Amino acid sequence: MANGKADTTLSIGELATRSGVSAEAIRYYEREHVVPAAARGGPGRYRRYDEYDVERLQFIRRARELGFSLDEVRELLALNDGSPSRPCTDVNRIARAHLAQVDEKLARLGALRAELDRVISECAGVVPVADCRILSALSGGPAHER
Amino acid sequence: MANGKADTTLSIGELATRSGVSAEAIRYYEREHVVPAAARGGPGRYRRYDEYDVERLQFIRRARELGFSLDEVRELLALNDGSPSRPCTDVNRIARAHLAQVDEKLARLGALRAELDRVISECAGVVPVADCRILSALSGGPAHER
DNA sequence: TGTACACCTTGTAGTGGCTACAAGGTCAAC
DNA sequence: GTTGACCTTGTAGCCACTACAAGGTGTACA
Q: Domain boundaries in chain A?
């Protein structure tokens, strides 16, 4: 209570600046129960935050940057808040499942990229539209697709 | 007019089956002016289609599978419909710009994947939550992030 | 001719994770 | 007291659909 850190209070705009999460996103997280409803301190009815909230939002931002969904972020936060002596099996499960999803997305995008590249490479861009290999590929050209 | 192909008429459901595009998506494309409003033929007011529409929808489906946006699809269709003797410069431009976007997305996703993998590899999943490297990385661990 | 039933119609809401307003309220400083 | 920056809630928009509701139509068969 007297640690000189937790009793600084911040507005949502200050929290936004400090955490790197926009004020609108913070309100959105509150609506979506990713973070609890902020206390409305002081004389008025504005949301008030402290250093703990800065850390929390930074946690969320980093998780989002790694591509975790808000559902996953909620779970990770709950695990982070839970019993500190429990093994981090669930954290690992969530992270590995997410990695697997990212790998899938990469594989799909890589295949798409290869196909797109193949289609493009057949066309120099100077022939008449009627002979364009890109368009003929999309029209069901002979090269692939069945 | 008497080529035995163009005068077969199809319902939206049949077009969906033949083109591989759902009936709901076809109606959506009509609303979004990706395809023109269908004729309402026959005795009632149902949409009627022909073989030409099957080809059109297949074109759209293939372009979508390659990740082109509906805006890009509209442009590609217009070029495909335009003067057949014009050079396919614009087709090439659209396709190459799209490829560049895909490459960007791949690079970002690859970097994210590497970072996620790094974070995960530091944690065997059996240590207490309090010592979990995944959570400490998200909390602003010492390894990176600033 | 009746009727069952598959299919179609339009319109609306939801997806994810926000962003971008609009219209008005509050706070702090001067 | 007044300015002006900041905050409030609520709503709409993004993308490319999907899903559903409530009702209309087409056709096959009895």
A: 12-86
